[in-house]
Each structure stands twice: as structure tokens, then as C-alpha cells.
Design a protein that fits this description.
CATH class of the largest domain: Alpha Beta
Oligomer: single chain
Shape: globular
Strand content: 15-25%
CATH architecture of the largest domain: 2-Layer Sandwich
Distance between the termini: 14 Å
Order of helices and strands: EHEEHHHEHEEEHEEEHEEH
Length: 286
Amino acid sequence: MSGLRIAILCPTPEYEEDWSHIQSDYARLLGNGAVFIDWTKANDFNGFDLVTPLLAWGYPRDCARWFALLDQLEAENLRVSNPVSILRWNSDKTYLAELDAVGIPSVPTIWSALLDRVALEDARESFNVETLIVKPPISGGADGTFRLERDDMVPASVAGQRMMIQPYVPNIAEEGEYSLFYFAGIFSHSIIKRPAKDDFRVQEQYGGREEAVTAPEGARMLAERALAATAEITKSGPLAYARVDILRDGNGIFRLMELELIEPSLFLRFAPDAGAAFAQALVSSA
């Protein structure tokens, strides 16, 4: 498409989720200049005009390597979309607390330094709920995320770890989670994602499903406020790509679930232009 050489960071061969359909989309849109590189082995970017972590799935499983890679990209002054400062900021979900502090409502969260039964019981009392969600602050694809009832044990894989504790919001199953997509700061499309019956995770690998939807006005307003607040906090301009995940709680309040600025699935099959605006925004960031 552009004649640029673009390094697209992608999962290791052992990564369990199928990303081939997304790879095909990016190859179609970006042409022969797009080269897919295992992010864990990416160390030589000589000859590339742009590096993008759009498919760097699995980075939360090796945080030290991930942050070292960001340091390298920054030290070598490489063109990266989105900027390295944004990638670093967005890697740890404590950014939600920063956004909440400037008026962007998210799901209420207790940031537990050491997850144990006492932390869970304190959270139940604080939130006045029986059912909790726990997740690592650095995570993706619902890795390490659990729904816990009062009698459930602390999962061994996350016991004693730094974790987020949130009240379970039943509307995730009743209505679903909205995702809104922006390229170069301009709205492209939106979808709604719903979990499989009796699950709470909307990801496809857990049986979640998605469909195109016109996002409610309140969700659209919150998404754009969240992006504006991000620009103010990080001193950044419009981002090449952004996905904003939003949930409406039981009181009808739209709340930010996540701001996906690193390696989001963009669901370009639902974009009215099949991804042309995305490709242009990515190329323009070089």
C-alpha cells in the first residue's frame, strides 16, 4: 500500500490463540512491506520505517522482556505506533486510577498488593457484593482473571500476587461490553461483545461472541472523554489506533473497562471501510 517497511510484533509460535485471520487483515491492508516478527525475538529493526506492537499478544507473561523491548525502541529513537510512552503507560492498568482521578469513571477497583482471603473479604464488605472479579494489573486476554464467590478459594496461580479486585457487574452478561474504535483520533466503528452462557469473559477463546452495534451516545461520549484525558495525562497527540472498552453498570452509568492502546483486536470486519482508515492512520504515524 505505502512502500513502507513495517515491523508488526506478533506472538510466539507457541501462543495458543489463533491470530492468523488478523494477520491476513494487516497483510491485505499494509501490503508486502508488512513483516511479522515474534516480539520475544525482536532486536534488529534495521531497515524498518515503523514498528507497531499491534499483535504483541502474550507480553504480560514476560513483563521484563516487554519493558526491555520498550526501552530499546525508545533508546534507538524508532518510529513506533503508538508512541513508546503510551505503550509503557498503558501496560499497567493503574492507568485506570489516573483516569478515574480526572473524572473518567471505571469499574470500582481495590488495588491489592497481596491477594489473599482477607483482601477478598475486605473487598466484599467495601463493595457490598458477594461476587468479585480479580485480575492482574498487567494482563491481556483474561489471563489470570477469575470470578470468585464467597466460598471460593484464592486461585493458587494468583495467590499472594498484586491484583485488581472489582465487583462483578452482571450487566456484562445481560447487555454486554461495548468496544469503540478510533484511528488517528477519529471514530471508526463499534461492536458489542457478550460472554458465553454462565461465563463472564467476552473473549472469543472462552466462547464470547461479538456483533456490530451503534454504540449508545453515553458510551461514545465516555470513550472520547477518556481519549482526551489520556492525551492530557500523557502529553500525546491523536493515537494511530485505540480501542475503548465500556460497560454500563446496574445504575445505567457507563464505565471504562479498559483502554486498549497496545495490541487490541480491532475487529476490522465490522469497520464500514474494511480497515482503510486504520491502515492510513498507521502509515501516517511513520
